[in-house]
Design a protein that fits this description.
single chain, 238 residues
C-alpha cells in the first residue's frame, strides 16, 4: 500500500509537469485498487493540492483571467452538487462511480481525437465544461478532460494554457475540501502515516520536466488509457 501511495505522489508531480494529461485518473484507479475508494479520493486530494501549487508558482499570473473566471463559476455548481451527493454514497458505490467515470474518460479521450469546436463560439462551452469538471473532480479527481478539450478551442499559447488550467484546478481542489470534510472522506491516520510521500511530488515534477521532450506523447497516452480501462474493469467486477 505504501509503495502505491508513494508512486501516486510521484506520478501526480510527474503529470503536473505537463508530460501526461491522462495520468490523473489512472492514479485514482491505482490507489482505489489498493485501499477503499473513499479513503483513496480523500488521501489524494491534499497531494493534488500541493502539486497544483507547484504549477501555479511556476506560471504565476500567466493565466487568462476571463477564461479562469468563466470555468470556475461553472465548476462551483458541479462541486456543490458533487459534495451533496458524495456524502450519501457508500464505498462500494463510490468504487463503481470511479470505474464508470474512468471508462467514460476512455471514451471521451477517443472521441476528443476528432472533436473540432468552433473557436468563434467557444465561450458557450465554458459552462458545461466547467460544471462537468467540478462534478467529476469531486467524485474521482477526473475534472481534466472537459477542461482540456475546452481550452484547446481558445487558442491560448502553451504557457497560458498550462497556467490557466493549473490555477483553475488549484482553486477547484481547494473548494472540494469542505465537502470532503462533510462527507468524512479524510482519514487523518492514513494521511499522517503517508505524509512523507509528499516529498516525491517535487521529484516527479523535476523528472517530468526533464523527460517532457523525450517521450512519445501519443503512445504514452494510449498505453495509459489502456491501463486505465483495465483498472476500471477490475474496480467494477472484482
Amino acid at each position: 500500500m505504501i509503495a502505491v501511495i508513494a508512486l501516486a505522489a510521484f506520478l501526480i508531480g510527474f503529470s503536473k509537469a505537463g508530460v501526461a494529461g491522462t495520468l490523473g485518473p489512472s492514479v485514482t484507479v491505482m490507489v482505489a485498487l489498493t485501499i477503499p475508494a473513499d479513503d483513496a479520493v480523500g488521501l489524494l486530494l491534499p497531494i493534488l493540492i500541493i502539486a497544483d501549487w507547484f504549477t501555479v508558482a511556476a506560471h504565476w499570473r500567466k493565466w487568462d483571467v476571463g477564461i479562469y473566471r468563466r470555468l470556475l463559476a461553472a465548476a462551483l455548481i458541479g462541486i456543490a452538487v458533487g459534495s451533496l451527493i458524495i456524502s450519501s454514497v457508500d464505498e462500494e458505490m463510490l468504487r463503481r462511480i470511479i470505474a464508470v467515470a474512468m471508462l467514460g474518460y476512455v471514451i471521451f479521450y477517443a472521441a476528443s481525437r476528432s472533436i473540432r469546436l468552433d473557436p468563434a463560439k467557444t465561450e458557450r462551452y465554458a459552462w458545461p465544461a466547467g460544471a462537468t469538471a467540478g462534478l467529476a473532480s469531486t467524485f474521482a479527481h477526473l475534472g481534466g478532460p472537459p477542461i482540456f478539450v475546452y481550452l484547446m478551442t481558445t487558442n491560448l499559447d502553451p504557457r497560458r494554457f498550462v497556467a490557466t488550467s493549473g490555477f483553475l484546478f488549484a482553486s477547484i481542489n481547494l473548494l472540494k475540501v469542505p465537502g470532503y470534510f462533510y462527507a468524512d472522506l479524510f482519514d487523518a491516520d492514513l494521511i499522517v502515516s503517508t505524509i512523507w510521500t509528499w516529498l516525491l511530488i517535487p521529484v516527479g515534477v523535476l523528472v517530468g520536466r526533464a523527460l517532457v521532450d523525450r517521450i512519445n506523447r501519443l503512445w504514452f497516452e494510449r498505453l495509459t488509457v489502456t491501463f486505465l480501462a483495465l483498472g476500471a474493469v477490475v474496480l467494477l467486477f472484482f
